[in-house]
Design goal:
alpha/beta; seven-stranded mixed sheet
Length: about 140
């Protein structure tokens, strides 16, 4: 089997805005990425009442292990009476949340001001790629 050299290596950047930790995820969120990210996200949410924003705009692919990681970190933060918000990249991701029954599980947010990720052509497991959503005015979006 030939190596796939087009895969995007997963990595993340972290910054603090006020009392909020903003983590921008880059690349593909698959089983290999999840193993690497788990330790970092656990460290960032170890204290009481963590306030975390996960910016997913630079994620080019997410599968069930990536969704599982999002659910795991959500449960961890809630058990510490904290807050988690996701910055979704497009409507395809919102559709993926709906189709998996996770549409009410996360608070969705617009990007937090500051340096943002480069945009990639998203590929979401089980959906076709779509362009970024239009008309996202206001502090929060809903998944319906």
């Amino acid at each position: 089997m030939a190596d796939n050299h087009t895969r995007s290596t997963a990595h993340h950047t972290t910054r603090s805005v006020g009392g909020t930790t903003v983590v921008t995820l880059h690349g593909e969120m698959d089983v290999l990425a999840v193993l690497a990210l788990r330790t970092a996200l656990d460290a960032l949410t170890a204290g009481p009442e963590p306030d975390l924003v996960l910016d997913l705009r630079a994620v080019s692919f997410i599968d069930c292990s990536g969704l599982g990681m999002l659910c795991r970190i959500r449960n961890r933060i809630r058990s510490r009476h904290g807050r988690i918000r996701l910055v979704p990249p497009d409507h395809a991701f919102l559709r993926l949340l709906r189709r998996t029954g996770l549409n009410g599980a996360f608070e969705l947010s617009h990007p937090i001001p500051g340096p943002g990720p480069r945009q990639h052509g998203p590929r979401w497991a089980g959906t076709s790629a779509e362009h970024a959503p239009e008309g996202l005015n206001g502090p929060l979006m809903s998944v319906s």
